[in-house]
Design a protein that fits this description.
TetR/AcrR family transcriptional regulator; DNA-bd_HTH_TetR-type_CS; TetR_C; about 190 residues; Tetracycline Repressor, domain 2; Arc Repressor Mutant, subunit A; about 70% helix; DNA binding; mainly alpha; transcription
């Protein structure tokens, strides 16, 4: 009796693809790499995910629901703007420097530079980053309205600053800057809220 084909675990395949894209970026992962990483024939990958781009978008969504969702959770759960920003910075560093996992932020590093045929992916990721900045600005505006921050606080500038900080932490983590050094920057950054 011939053996039946292995059961396909779509979730496991998506996690493997996420880690490959996270480590090497959108253009750095070829279809041949996906075949090898997922252990599936390209026809099966296309049948399950439609295209490399669709698989990448699903991988980003998986990242955002899990590891990459720390900022969304902190903004929703922390009662003070100081607590939210502190938690975001600390959890960013913890996420970006985890041993045995890709370093940095997947959304920051996956496609900052692309060939022109991948402009759609580059722009989509840029929009995700712009939305993160907007969420920071909105939380800072709420803190101003609630009297948590001085009325003359520039929420846009401060939101841009913390977004830049997050992007910089991602790059530093990918460059191998140790977690302790990155953590030392958090109190310095939080002084901007005083």
């Amino acid at each position: 009796m011939a053996g039946r084909p292995r059961q396909f675990d779509r979730d496991a395949a998506l996690m493997k693809a996420r880690d490959a894209f996270w480590a090497r970026g959108y253009e750095g992962v070829s279809m041949a790499d996906l075949v090898e990483t997922l252990g599936l024939a390209s026809a099966r990958i296309y049948a399950a995910f439609g295209s490399k781009e669709t698989l990448f978008r699903e991988a980003i969504a998986l990242y955002d629901e899990g590891e990459g969702g720390f900022a969304t959770r902190a903004l929703a759960e922390e009662p003070t703007v100081h607590g939210a920003i502190e938690r975001i910075l600390i959890e960013a560093i913890e996420t970006y420097t985890r041993p045995g996992h890709p370093q940095g932020c997947m959304v920051v590093s996956a496609a900052t530079n692309c060939a022109s045929e991948n402009d759609g992916i580059r722009e989509w990721l840029a929009e995700l980053r712009r939305r993160r900045t907007l969420s920071l600005v909105e939380r800072l505006e709420k803190a101003i309205a609630d009297g948590e921050l001085s009325p003359d606080t520039d929420a846009q500038a401060l939101g841009d600053y913390f977004a830049t900080m997050l992007h910089g932490l991602s790059v530093q983590a990918r460059d191998g800057v140790p977690k302790a050094r990155l953590m030392a920057s958090v109190p310095v950054a939080l002084r901007s809220l005083d």
